[in-house]
Amino acid sequence: MRRQMTRRQVLLGSGVGAMSAILVACGGPSSPAATQAPSAAAPAAPTSAAAAASAPTATPQSQAVATSQPAATVAPTQAAQPQVASVPRNETLIVSVSDSVNQMNDAAIANPFLIGAQRTGWHFAFESFYYYNEWWTDQVTAPPGLTGKNGEIPYLATDYQYSDTYDELTIKLRPNVTWSDGQPFTANDAVFTINMLKDNAPKLNFSFEMKEWVKDIVALDDHTLKITLTSANPSFMFQYFQWYEDHGFPIVPEHIFKGQDPLTFTNLDLAKGWPVVTGPWKLVYSSPQQKIWDRRDDWWGAKTGFHPLPKMKRVIVLPRFEDSKLAQLLIANQAEATHQLQPADATTVMAQNPKVIVRTPDKSHPWGWIASFPEYLGFNCSKAPYDDPDIRWAINHAIDRKQIVDIGFQGDGAGAVLPLETNAALKPFYDAVSDLLQKYPIDDHDPNKTAQIMQSKGYAKDQGGFWAKGGKRFPLLVVTPAGFFDNYVPVLIAQLRKAGFDAAFKSPADEATIQQLGTEDAFMNGQQGSLRDPYITLEQYHSRNSAPTGQPAQYPFRWKNEIFDKAVEGMAKLQGTDQQFMTFYRQAMEQWIPALPVIPLVQDFVIIPVSTTYWTNWPTSKNPYTMPAFWLRGSATLLLDTLEPTQS
Question: Who has greater pLDDT, 522 or 61?
Answer without folding.
Answer: 522
